[in-house]
Amino acid sequence: MKPAKVIGNVTLSQAAPAFKGARWLVLSPQGPDELTGKNPSGVSRAWTPVVYDDLGAGVGEDILYVEGSEATQPFEHAIPLDAINVAILDRIHFNPLF
Q: Are the C-beta atoms of 4 and 26 separated by less than 8 Å?
């Protein structure tokens, strides 16, 4: 699982039937600089993944997401999905040991 901040939504005019009614979020992955406050904007310079969301996360919220084959685990049938939101976080406490 990876931490991220939701920075946007994606609106689709058409989607595969397996994704009807799905929500899509644009994320900013959170690394040590974002989690410790060294990056005051909280938005990383890393690539911005788009993830499937059925938990209802909104812009500005912190989440955990998974990528790859783990992202398809909640579905009964094979689905073309690379990343999914698995948790909405109330708070993050990050205290690196280095």
A: no
Dist. CA 12–CA 2, nearest whole Å: 25
User: DSSP of 19-38, one letter per residue?
Assistant: GTT-EEEEEEE--HHHHHTS
Instruction: Measure Cα distances from 74 to 28, 30, 83 in Å.
Output: 23, 24, 12
Q: pLDDT tens digits, the chain, 98 residues: what are they?
A: 999 999 999 988 888 887 877 899 999 999 998 988 898 888 888 889 999 999 999 999 999 999 998 898 888 887 888 999 999 999 988 887 76
Q: How far is residue 66's CA from residue 47's CA, in Å, rounded to a whole number? A: 15
CB atoms within 10 A of CB 52: 21
For tokens 């595969």, the residue is 16
Position 92, amino acid: I
Q: Find tokens 């991220």 and name the residue.
A: 4
